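Section 4.2 – Deliverable D4.2 (structural model, holo form)

The reporting period included a commitment to supply a predicted holo structure for the target in complex with flavin mononucleotide. Inputs used:
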Amino acid sequence: MKKQHWPGGAMLGPVPPALVSCGTVEKPNALTIGWTGILNTIPPKTYISVRPERYSYNLIKESGEFVINLPTEKIVKAVDYCGVRSGAKEDKLAKCGLTVSPSVKISAPMVDQSPVNLECKVTDIVHLGSHDMFIADIVGVNVDESLLDEKGKLHLSKAGLCAYAHGEYFALGKQIGDFGFSVRRKSVQKRRNMQAKKEGRKNGKNGK
Ligand SMILES: Cc1cc2nc3c(=O)[nH]c(=O)nc-3n(C[C@H](O)[C@H](O)[C@H](O)COP(=O)(O)O)c2cc1C
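Output (structure tokens):
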């Protein structure tokens, strides 16, 4: 590879184009957030970086709550719309045909059409420059039951998740490994592959 050196920039990718809902069930809003991620495992902590000029900024700051709704291919057009129009001017969720339900632990609502909703409570706000980072505890997670197998294991690969990189949206492609596969013994790997093939067949896939 022959590399060019560029000035520092926000070039990390892919990131989730997360649909972040805030406000209340009666008056919900959502904005799209690319600058998000996991900060800590125990306790589970996340962040979203939001420009203070966003309509959602004060909703989140005043309530101290938001929900991260994982984006899917099915709702990616709505995800983009919520990232280019402001809730100050319209009910974006209604416009996109998205609906909300009450969360379990917080009063910010979750988006029904997203398969995984992370209920978040703000613990710190860090002023960084263009954006303020809301650091939050993930106080509850809601998952679509159709993504669970009979043992209760979550299969996110079936959710149709999507990603965002350098201004473009992508559907996640085929699975190319799993956690620790680079060091796993061949016999264990073979068993896992066979199991995955069997599950694929059971789920109507051709197992290839
Ligand atoms: C893919 C994508 C990623 C975005 N990421 C962020 C982000 O991380 N932080 C932010 O403040 N705005 C981000 N935006 C812009 C806001 O979503 C956008 O300004 C939105 O209209 C704000 O809505 P609101 O005024 O209803 O709060 C992003 C937009 C898109 C399309």
